[in-house]
């Protein structure tokens, strides 16, 4: 199976393994160490280890993972994206809110958050958008991976949040800011990308 077609837990665990283990080799004990990060996003899920193990089996069924026995695995090489990596000065996955749209967050990608904020502040909204969180990388391939990881996590929490809605096409999601930030933290941890904390970068 083409890894780029993975969704939900399958994609999340695939990205975790691909970005965190040397030679893509790992043990169940090693991947279970990520359980606390998943608990931040899934506080009511008391079977995260079981879900991870079940997902590993699905990746094996898709011929993306090899099992050696005694809890040892290796991710098989797979071209994940057809997107050609393009170096650029900055690619940002952002989390925005707007006081005039309570209960919703906007998640998207841009190579300039300050410009994006100006574009969004138009006659359709009475108040400007606020940057709540961001993940910064240096190429479009990584920003695409981050955005898809975020969408996959949202789908595992509540698929109705973004499926078959006009809000999905407009990058709006019915989440709290805290939920959005926890999802960003989880994605940052499993993808191992750099995060800039200096908000002045976007002024």
Automatic annotation (TrEMBL):
Signal peptide: none annotated. Residues 99-187 form the Bacteriophage T5 Orf172 DNA-binding domain. InterPro entries: DRP_C, Phage_T5_Orf172_DNA-bd, WH-like_DNA-bd_sf. SMART domains: T5orf172. This is Bacteriophage T5 Orf172 DNA-binding domain-containing protein. It comes from Hujiaoplasma nucleasis.
């Amino acid at each position: 199976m083409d890894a780029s077609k993975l969704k939900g837990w399958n994609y999340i665990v695939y990205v975790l393994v691909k970005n965190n283990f040397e030679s893509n080799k790992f043990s169940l004990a090693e991947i279970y160490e990520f359980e606390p990060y998943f608990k931040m996003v899934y506080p009511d899920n008391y079977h995260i280890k079981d879900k991870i193990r079940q997902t590993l089996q699905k990746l094996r069924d898709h011929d993306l993972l090899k099992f050696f026995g005694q809890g040892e695995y290796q991710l098989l090489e797979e071209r994940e994206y057809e997107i050609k990596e393009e170096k650029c000065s900055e690619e940002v996955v952002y989390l925005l809110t707007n006081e005039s749209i309570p209960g919703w967050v906007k998640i998207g990608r841009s190579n300039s958050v300050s410009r994006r904020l100006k574009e969004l502040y138009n006659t359709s909204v009475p108040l400007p958008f606020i940057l709540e969180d961001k993940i910064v990388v240096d190429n479009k391939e990584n920003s695409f991976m981050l955005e898809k990881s975020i969408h996959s996590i949202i789908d595992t929490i509540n698929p109705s949040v973004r499926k078959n809605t006009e809000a999905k096409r407009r990058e709006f999601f019915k989440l709290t800011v805290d939920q959005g930030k926890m999802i960003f933290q989880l994605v940052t941890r499993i993808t191992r990308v750099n995060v800039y904390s200096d908000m002045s970068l976007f002024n």
